Amino acid sequence: MSPKFEYRHNDLPHDSTVESLLIGSLLLDSSNLDVVIASVESFDFFETFHQLVFSIILELAKNRHDVDLLTVSELMKVHPEKPEDFRQRLNTMAMAVVSTTNIKAQVRIVHDMSVRRRVIRAGTAIVTAGFTKCSLSEVIDAMQEIHRDVMRRATIEG
What we know:
Elements: H1 16-28, H2 33-39, H3 48-62, H4 69-77, H5 86-95, H6 103-130, H7 136-154
Helix pairs in contact: 1-3, 1-5, 1-6, 4-5, 6-7
């Protein structure tokens, strides 16, 4: 019988405050957007709302539109997955920012927490694979592929 490895979602490494400050910084001053986009993707954010806001920011950047509180709020207004209190949450993120000078440190923290979550998920997958009835070479191949995937995301640009 294979053991079942479980953990609660909220037990995974994350820092919601830093995520919020990073997005708030971008809403106030998008001059560091290239630095952030080079290292962070939507799925790197732990909070679903932060993932949604950052995906909108990425879409704006991709289409060469201004990234600011008003523009993001307007796009969020028509998004089918927006929470009822999205305006208040966006305003709170922007108002919490005292300075945007720490944005690189915030990027590093968000990225590192994301990689740690991937390591935990990968470790769980590797242990689970070890208990399967697959051949040893299949288990090792799966383990190596999981390892390669984590290592691809572990490096940060900039």
